[in-house]
Design goal:
The protein is mostly beta strands and 160 residues long. The protein contains 1 helix and 12 strands, in the order H-E-E-E-E-E-E-E-E-E-E-E-E. Strands 1, 3, 5, 10 and 12 form a 5-stranded antiparallel β-sheet that branches. A 5-stranded antiparallel β-sheet has the order 2-4-11-8-9, with no helix packed on it. A two-stranded antiparallel ribbon has the order 6-7. A hairpin with a 3-residue loop joins strand 8 and strand 9. The longest helix is centred in the first third of the chain and has 17 residues.
């Protein structure tokens, strides 16, 4: 078989690459998944408390403009008493960027968030924490004897 030798034209190749780059720019946003890590083996809050407990956290390099997150929370039931409370998302251990309630109705709370990262883009790292506290429910019984629990987890987290 005879071999065919292609003549590579540098300007033609450069034009092709420019077209590919502009096509990528037109296609929209780059999405990166963000993993979260549990802070304990249980990832449940079993005690009534005035302070929040961190269930999940991660540290990222904030190079995107926005963090899109979906969360899930539920309070359990002990006997006939439902557990309820509050949740929040914190940046760098100090700034609360989102918060809400976990209803004491034994139903899921499914918040969806869009968090602005532009004030943090120059920072080398950003710590993100998902926290919860139980404010109502049975104070005895349950799995560990301290009453009902509130559980929570990230459903998704994407840098946009």
């Amino acid at each position: 078989m005879p071999k065919v030798h292609k003549n590579i034209d540098l300007l033609q190749r450069l034009a092709e690459l420019e077209e590919q780059v502009s096509a990528l720019a037109r296609n929209g946003r780059v999405v990166g998944e963000v993993p979260f890590y549990p802070t304990s083996l249980r990832t449940f809050v079993y005690e009534d408390n005035t302070s929040f407990t961190t269930l999940w956290e991660t540290i990222i390099s904030p190079r995107a403009a926005q963090l899109s997150m979906g969360l899930v929370f539920i309070g359990d039931i002990v006997g006939t008493t439902n557990s309820g409370g509050e949740w929040r998302v914190q940046f760098d251990d100090s700034t609360t960027v989102a918060s809400g309630n976990v209803p004491a109705t034994f139903t899921y709370a499914l918040p969806a968030l869009s968090l602005d990262l532009t004030p943090y883009r120059a920072a080398p790292s950003l710590k993100i924490q998902i926290q919860v506290r139980r404010t109502s429910g049975a104070t005895t019984g349950g799995k560990f004897g301290n009453g009902g629990a509130i559980g929570g987890a990230p459903r998704y987290a994407r840098l946009i």
